[in-house]
Amino acid sequence: MRRGLFLAISLAAGSAALAGQAALGADAALAGEAALDGVKDIVLHMEDGKALTVGTVTFTSDGDSSRFKIDFDDTKFTQYFLSMREFKCIEGPEILCHVPYPYPNPRVVTARDLSWLEHDLLFVYKRPADYGAKMAHGLVYSLTMTSDGFIGKPQSIDLDEIASPPADLGTAFFTGEHRYHIQPGTRWFESVTIEPHR
Fold first, then answer.
1. For 13-65, how does the pLDDT look when each residue is reduced to its tens digit (9 = 90+)?
2. How far from 150 is each of 4, 69, 88, 91, 133, CA to CA, in Å?
3. Is residue 78 within 8 Å of 65, Cβ to Cβ?
4. Which of 61, 103, 133, 195 is deepest in the core (most CB within 10 A)?
5. Pairing assessment for the beta strands 95-98 and 108-109 based on DSSP bridges
6. What is the C-alpha to C-alpha distance for residues 81 and 77, in angstroms, rounded to an integer?
7. CB 10 within 8 A of CB 158
8. For residue 114, which of 166, 148, 152, 147 has the smallest C-alpha distance?
9. What is the b/e burial string over 71-84, where b = at least 16 CB atoms within 10 angstroms of the residue's CB?
10. What pTM does this model have?
């Protein structure tokens, strides 16, 4: 009798756990659909709590993936000519300049792979007093999905590594060993969010 009761309780607990996992999976899928659909604002967050909306990204669902298109707000940037190149930059305690990825970008993401979106958000920073820009001072924002968008934390990259074409142009270059940890609070913009358009 006790053995049968124990078995029944175990089966019920197992069923409840499976149901919970299924619910979590469904919630994650819904979150992924919300994050990868529609128009979102690109917002840079400063270390002092202020925020600056610098553009939008439009996601278009395409089966299990989404295509995206970024439109920067040129009024938030100043044109700079640095190291024989033209950049769109944001001025402040440091100068943050957007660096377009110089090789083909399919602009497709999935809930599990946001690398091509991250590669459309590459930057280089410099001090206002510095002459020119050192491409070794590159930044990529490592994105994590939220319920309705993304949050990204800066990681250090050396943009000189893509001065020549990577061996595999079909794979986003700045992943894994090509990224380096940054101590929180060391950069002017400490995070980026991609959130529902206001």
1. 444 443 444 333 434 444 567 889 999 999 999 988 999 999 999 999 988 89
2. 48, 15, 23, 24, 29
3. no
4. 133
5. unpaired
6. 13
7. no
8. 152
9. eeeeeebeebebee
10. 0.82
